[in-house]
Specification:
- The complex is a heterotrimer of chains A (about 220), B (about 90) and C (about 550).
- Chain A is mainly alpha-helical and about 220 residues long.
- Chain A is about 75% helix and about 0% strand.
- Chain B is built from three helices and no strands.
- Chain B is about 75% helix and about 0% strand.
- Chain B is mainly alpha-helical and about 90 residues long.
- Chain B has two domains: about 50 residues; about 30 residues.
- The chains are: A mainly alpha (about 220), B mainly alpha (about 90), C mainly alpha (about 550).
- Bound molecules: copper (II) ion.
- The site of copper (II) ion has 3 residues of chain C, from loops.
Chain lengths: ~220, ~90, ~550
């Protein structure tokens, strides 16, 4: 084993035996990392549960202030981007360079659309005095300010993850355009995909929990 | 495969918006969460490929959510039982 | 290619040379050394704050430090010792160095992320030090709301961000270890052939990745509450400060196991090596590590017995807390059984593990006092608590760390330290530690509260005793630094296996070559096969 008989793939790092081991390590690594992400968002969801239990009425009222159409639009956008991301990974596995680049760019475009929509939502909140702090509308019910604190923390951290995701994708798409990824070496694309899907899943939970409470009876 | 999962996700999104408009009483939240969990599971199983992955990856994928339930369950164990013992004078 | 290969056959310390080659290294052994240097610096800083506390408490009057300054001093002592010394102490140094070697790998799965983790640690430390120089923090290391979020006008935001950032270095270490253990073991290295130190690191890593993110988001929320006026724990707008305590202790109780589990792993190795016997009940010791990690996540409410937590929840927390004692006791019994009729050699690592066992026993048993909900109401926030957790974290964690450092120092540096000095230091630390902290049990039980710079005169005797013990302790720790550094300059060259121990790390030269193994190992034997172990290469009495 000390003298490798087969030639090593140029992308195989020194401390791995073979490409399979390297790929398995990176995939498992991403999954373990996503567990920490789940726990990270988990703290926020914990706060959500406690305060929703304390202030059920204020929660519905506050949710009513959110624009569920925009939230729904963003949900669609993210789901489509997850699809294109999955297709990009598949293109990488099939060594299809053009498709890879196309799907990755589409995913990034959709991610950007999400952030733009988010920006306009935030802007509206500032205009309606719904941002916690000294300018928060004092006429609102006890508990609503906590809802908006959580809303900004949750969606803000989610958006930060999107921005990081776009950064990762930029790196991936540049390398994809150079033809780095193919059936033998597609780990980075897959790992980036896992991260992107996870960010999508967080939104899948945030959407009904934040936007849709106020829909009925209001 | 990818496309049919994608269509299912869109359908579930439509359902969750539609259901939110109905007043199901105490069932509002469980239904909304049930749909969200279904959608999340679809993404995990198909888009993230856990369905075709090793048992280890499956365990890791589940463990995060199990640990969240520990956090949620035990903390709510405090909040939900706080009122059981009357406070004198209140 | 051949030139590069020859570099990898040299000692990891020598090739390549230069500061840049260290600061940009991806070698887990060099990163371990970087961590070792950093945590030693922080141990000295935290120790200086401890010295200030003990100096103030020699007299009942608050004469040396003003109450404000005292608040900052004990806060910084806690923050630095916990987040910047104890949490990374064993995992990031001994763990980083040994884990790949022990499983027969060339490196951790993600060498670059390993280096990143050290840089994140340094950035987090710098931010925290910025808070120190910017007026300090006075909230206690626990950052309890609403004081931290609303009242304190010290640099809480900066310190909280420092802790937030450092949390990621610990997450990355744990994450790297888990993937490495699952994917990088050498052929034949099955799970039940792993050294118990590795099992302990695995359990520790689980706690790191499952707990640390929660405290990270929690301190981030406190920072956001101060900086952005978001209100999550703010009672003024209906928030619940106790929620902060839940989230904080969800991590910070298990964090104790981040400090103690690796030390237990070290002790398991040393007990077998120093009694030259197969460890008694291997699988029990291995699984008790996992049991401690898991049960440790279910008990955090014992920190909230007097915080308006529901007493029904308190009852359950109290019962589960008692249960953690079971796997801890399993370990202690198994170590004792291992030593029974063993050929115990009185080398300096032996002294440290005996110290560990004595102090950990006291710390663990007093933990049961505090876990009992009724008794805890009397003991909450007294020096009894302070003594208890120092017995666990310093008596257990630091003794284990130093024991491991003395055991593996020849492997890490290729040099032998002075054996007599090692024994004297171990004794000084053991007796100094007891003199410092045992009186605190008494004075705490008598009702002396923690975190005040003044106290009633009747407690002075115990406090003087405590401060005197701290002097011994300080001398002991300083001595270690001196003779270990001296060994680097003047120490004799270490043989490959000075203790005659089993394990892959002892089959390679001291210090190891860059790639750890010149020929990738294939494991065919069980762990701790001391019947067939080589004889020690230095004198055994
Ligand atoms: Cu605890």
């Amino acid at each position: 084993m000390s003298t490798p008989t087969t030639t090593r793939h140029p992308k195989l790092q020194e401390h791995f035996y073979n490409m399979d081991q390297q790929l398995e390590a990176s995939t498992l690594g991403m999954w373990v990392f996503l567990v920490t992400e789940v726990m990270f968002f988990g703290g926020l969801f914990m706060a959500y549960i406690v305060y929703r239990h304390m202030y059920p009425h204020a929660w519905v009222e506050a949710s009513h202030e959110l624009n569920w159409q925009l939230g729904g639009l963003n949900t669609m956008v993210l789901i489509v981007s997850s699809l294109t991301m999955a297709l990009a990974v598949r293109a990488a596995m099939l060594s299809e360079k053009k498709q890879q680049v196309f799907y990755l760019l589409t995913t990034m475009a959709l991610g950007t659309v999400f952030l733009v929509v988010k920006f306009f939502e935030y802007k509206a909140k500032f205009e309606h005095h719904l941002v916690p702090g000294p300018h928060f509308n004092p006429a609102l019910e006890q508990g609503m300010q906590i809802f908006f604190s959580l809303y900004f923390m949750m969606t803000g951290i989610h958006a930060a993850h999107m921005v990081i995701g776009l950064g990762i994708m930029t790196y991936i798409v540049i390398n994809a355009a150079k033809g780095t990824y193919n059936a033998e070496y597609y780990g980075p694309v897959e790992v980036a995909g896992l991260y992107w899907h996870f960010v999508d899943i967080v939104w899948i939970f945030l959407f009904p929990l934040l936007y849709l409470l106020g829909r009925h009876g209001a | 495969m990818c496309v049919s999962v994608f269509l299912a996700l869109l359908v579930f999104t439509a359902i969750t918006v539609w259901v939110a408009g109905l007043d199901l009483g105490p069932l509002n939240t469980p239904v909304a969460l049930g749909i969200a969990v279904t959608k999340g599971t679809l993404v995990v199983l198909f888009f993230m490929g856990v369905r075709w992955n090793t048992p280890l990856t499956k365990t890791v994928a589940i463990s995060g959510f199990v640990w969240l339930l520990i956090l949620f369950g035990i903390t709510m164990g405090d909040y939900l039982t706080r009122g059981w013992l009357g406070v004198p004078g209140r | 290619m051949s030139n590069e290969a020859s570099v990898h056959e040299q000692s990891y310390l020598g090739a390549p040379h230069g500061l840049a080659s260290w600061l940009l290294t991806k070698d887990h052994k060099r990163i371990a050394i970087l961590y070792l240097i950093s945590i030693t610096i922080f141990f000295a800083v935290g120790g200086t704050f401890a010295a200030m506390i003990r100096a103030e408490l020699v007299t009942p009057q608050g004469d040396l430090l003003s109450s404000d300054l005292y608040n900052k001093v004990f806060t910084l002592h806690g923050v630095i010792m916990i987040f910047f010394f104890l949490i990374p102490s064993i995992p990031a140094t001994l763990g980083n160095f040994l884990l790949p070697i022990m499983i027969g790998a060339k490196d951790l799965a993600f060498p670059r992320i390993n280096l990143l983790s050290w840089y994140i640690y340094v950035i987090g430390a710098t931010v925290t030090l910025a808070a120190v120089f910017n007026g300090g923090v006075d909230t206690g290391w626990t950052f309890y709301t609403p004081y931290s979020s609303m009242s304190s006008n010290t640099s809480v935001t900066t310190a909280a961000l420092g802790v937030f950032i450092t949390g990621f270095s610990s997450i990355l270490t744990g994450f790297n270890f888990i993937v490495t253990l699952h994917r990088m073991r050498a052929p034949g290295m099955t799970w039940f052939r792993l050294p118990l130190f590795v099992w302990a690191q695995y359990a520790t890593s689980l706690v790191m990745i499952l707990g640390t993110p929660v405290v990270a988001i929690t301190v981030l929320l406190v920072a956001a509450e101060r900086a952005l006026h978001l209100g999550i724990f703010d009672p003024k707008i209906g928030g619940d400060p106790v929620l902060f305590q839940h989230l904080f202790w969800f991590y910070s109780h298990p964090a104790v196991y981040i400090m103690i589990l690796p030390a237990m792993g070290v002790v398991s190795e040393l007990v077998a090596a120093m009694s030259r016997k197969q460890i008694f009940g291997y699988s029990f010791v291995a699984f008790s590590s996992l049991a401690i990690a898991i049960i440790g996540f279910l008990v955090w409410g014992h920190h909230l017995f007097v915080s308006s937590q529901s007493i029904y929840a308190g009852l359950v927390f109290s019962i589960i807390t008692m249960m953690v004692a079971v796997p801890s006791a399993v370990k202690t019994f198994n170590w004792t059984a291992t030593m029974y009729k063993g050929a115990i050699s009185w080398e300096s690592p032996t002294f440290w593990i005996f110290g560990f066992m004595g102090l950990f026993l006291v710390g663990g048993l007093t933990g049961l006092f505090l876990g009992a909900m009724g008794l805890d109401i009397h003991l909450t926030d007294t020096y009894f608590v302070v003594a208890h957790f120092h017995y666990i974290m310093v008596g257990g964690g630091v003794m284990g760390f130093l024991g491991g450092l003395h055991f593996w120092w020849p492997k890490m540096t290729g040099k032998m330290y002075n054996e007599t000095a090692g024994k004297i230091a171990a004794m000084l630390v053991f007796f100094g530690f007891n003199a410092t902290f045992f009186p605190q049990f008494i004075v705490g039980y008598m009702g002396m509260p923690r975190r005040y710079h003044a106290y009633p005169p009747e407690f002075q005797f115990f406090n003087v005793l405590s401060s005197a013990g701290a002097v011994l302790l300080g001398i002991g720790y300083t001595m270690i630094v001196i003779y270990l550094i001296y060994s680097l300059i003047k120490g004799p060259k270490a043989p490959a296996n000075p203790w005659g121990a089993t394990g892959l790390e002892w089959k390679i030269p001291s210090p190891p070559i860059t790639h750890n193994f010149s020929e990738m190992p294939v494991v065919t034997e069980e762990a701790y096969d001391y019947q067939h172990a080589p004889a020690p290469q230095r004198g055994v009495k």
